[in-house]
Amino acid sequence: MKRAAVLVMLREFGAYRQLFAICAAIAAGWGNASAEEVVYSVPLIQQASGAFYVRGTLGGSVAADFLVDTGSSYVALSKQTFDMLRQSGATTYLRSIRGATANGRVIRAKVYEVSALSIGDDCVLKSVEVVVMPGSDRDILGLSALRRVEPFTVALEPLALRFEACRQPMDDRA
User: Fold this and answer.
1) How far apart are CA 108 and CA 132, in angstroms?
2) What is the pLDDT of residues 74-121, one digit of tens each?
């Protein structure tokens, strides 16, 4: 069964019948990548805290371990990582923003465009917006990158970040 047919079923059935449509979608393999779709699988590292990290490269030369954080609007870099990246010439200043951190503290942060962000070995995202987090010692893979690889899942066996797309900025407009 094609995804479009499943979506039509979901729209046409009443609320009490949507469960049937969802079961049909599961039975048809909806959500599983077909042979034609490219599937990326990037190993995750689980810290003692339970947090998941993924290895990546910024600007083609600066390696970093990123906390995977769907609650972060941007890829956030520590000052140390950003300083290494800036020396390579792979950043362009865009603007300054006010934002709230996870603990509710309001900060002012600078937004830069990074020429490239690699997630694992095969997915290279070009022109990614990042913020530099004052006082932070960790790098965060936030939604400014994750929205370009959606849909994505976290697989527990083996531990991996899996996604079907590796979209570039002009792909986001479609």
Assistant:
1) 10
2) 999 999 999 999 999 899 999 999 888 878 888 899 999 999 999 998
* Range of the structural domain that residue 142 is part of: 40-168
- Statement to judge: residues 103 and 123 lie in one domain: yes
Domain CATH for 47: 2.40.70.10
CA-based nearest residue to 79, from 68, 67, 101, 64? 64
Is the residue at 173 inside a domain? no
Residue 145 DSSP label = H
Count of beta carbons in the 10 Å neighbourhood of residue 45: 13
Using DSSP bridges, classify how beta strands 123-132 and 75-77 pair: parallel, antiparallel or unpaired. Answer: parallel
Q: What is the pTM of this model?
A: 0.74
Structurally, the chain folds into a number of domains equal to 2
Rounded Cα gap, residues 151 and 149, in angstroms: 6
Which tokens in the block code for residue 5?
């047919």
| Average pLDDT of the chain, as a whole number | 80
Is 174 domain-assigned?
no
Q: Please, what is the end-to-end C-alpha distance for the chain in angstroms?
A: 25
Amino acid at 14: G
Alpha carbons 32 and 121: distance in angstroms, whole number: 22
